[in-house]
Known about the structure:
GO terms for molecular function: NADH dehydrogenase (quinone) (non-electrogenic) activity; NADH dehydrogenase (ubiquinone) activity; quinone binding. Belongs to the complex I subunit 2 family. One of its GO terms (cellular component) is endomembrane system. Keywords: Cell membrane, Membrane, NAD, Quinone, Translocase, Transmembrane, Transmembrane helix, Transport, Ubiquinone. The chain is mainly α. Helix content is about 75%, strand content about 0%. The chain contains 20 helices and 4 strands. The protein folds into 2 domains: about 1-245, no CATH class; about 250-460, no CATH class. The chain has helices at about 1-15, 20-40, 55-75, 80-85, 90-105, 110-130, 135-165, 170-180, 185-200, 210-215, 220-245, 250-270, 280-300, 300-330, 345-350, 350-365, 370-385, 390-415, 425-440, 445-460; strands at about 45, 50-55, 330, 335. The strands form 2 sheets. The chain has a two-stranded antiparallel sheet. Strands 3-4 form a two-stranded antiparallel ribbon. Helix 6 (about 110-130) packs antiparallel against helix 7 and helix 7 packs antiparallel against helix 10. The longest helix has about 30 residues, at about 135-165.
Amino acid sequence: MAVGALALLLVGIVVNKEKSSLVNWLAIGLLIATGLLVVLQPADGIIFNGLFIADGFARYMKVLVIGGAALALILGLSNAEENGIHKYEYAILAVLATLGMMVMVSANDLMSLYVGLELQSLALYVMAAIKRDDSRATEAGLKYFVLGALSSGMLLYGASLVYGFTGHTNLSEIVIAISNEGRSVGLIFGMVFLLAGVAFKISAVPFHMWTPDVYEGAPTPVTAFFAMAPKVAAMTLMVRLVMDTFSPITSDWQQIVIFLSIASMVLAAFAAIGQSSIKRLIAYSSIGHVGFALVGLSSGTQVGVEGVAIYMAIYVGMTVALFACLLSLRTEKGYVETIEDLAGASKTRPFVAAVMAIVMFSLIGLPPLAGFFAKWQVFLAAIEANLYVLAVIGMLASAISAFYYLRVVKVMYFDEPRSDFIAVPGELNIIMAVFSFLIVTYFFTVGNPLSALAHNAAGSLF
């Protein structure tokens, strides 16, 4: 990936900005080739003096990260000019961000963890503000940069405390040090700051404040990228830290994860109700789904990690379909901005409206759609761990969230059309068809293989 990114930079400079579609396609090819390499040539072990670990869990999450990144790039191909992402640098930044995420997923040391995190973040800051002549995009980039720097500082402070009280930066050695010496107040403080830094990256409440503004301000294909790959990478980091590094002090980190989970589910359920902007609605929706994924992690069991792995895969699938729908609904004036802009979409674009409705029902968690099985898996883990209150709060939050998802369906199907939508690009039709089919037939098609893969991935941590 690193060599490929540098080669793409040379190609971009030589062929210049007018041929950015070539760099885009080469970047997508590079991501697919890397994904195939990860799957077809599995390697297990620890390299670079313990800085980097390759195991089943890392492999599973890397495939999700690479898949999410490649699909986000494909989503932006047909309308790069309008979104300001026609510059060849965009695809290269996406590849470098993905490289950072892959380092995060395989980090086995506080140092490599931070290097991966910053490589991802620095590329994402630029991607958010890549449409330089748009004040909202530059504002989104600036907000993300300032708050991202704050979170990095918290993470580094936590890492320095953990190092100070254990004497190690290697995650495997930190576990041994905690087991031998027991917990101390300084170590708990370090863990809290470390998890707060990671919680910012997954946009869990109360570290979510950047998400609605950045999602709304950034160009839509960039928002799609933000909503998929970085979330998976940061969630992997959270899982590895709590299940592996801080496993001797489970009762301490469990309280933090349960709080993050409840706060994210409840705030997202209520805050999204008053939103009129479709992208802000998606931002709060993503905060809520992070909360649901953390329900599984709260259990501290292998079933819980399995639930998180399945949840993230289904979440990526639903998000791809959702953004494909959004990018398909364009009027003469531009892209749909508010929920009201979707009015009457069922009459003018019946296929897109049908896919959008399927995705909304899946996000609520209605059976037999994929979203139901994602929530089933994490709630099951919570109930097995006797976290009944957490599971009940999750179900209630899910019921409340049904209101704003169903409002989108109501506007598309029952309101009168306001304007005509322009024809849908071919590749978006294919993505919508494939992912809506998988969401509807999840139980009969990908359900069992995905469960088996998630089971093996989670097993590698225990």
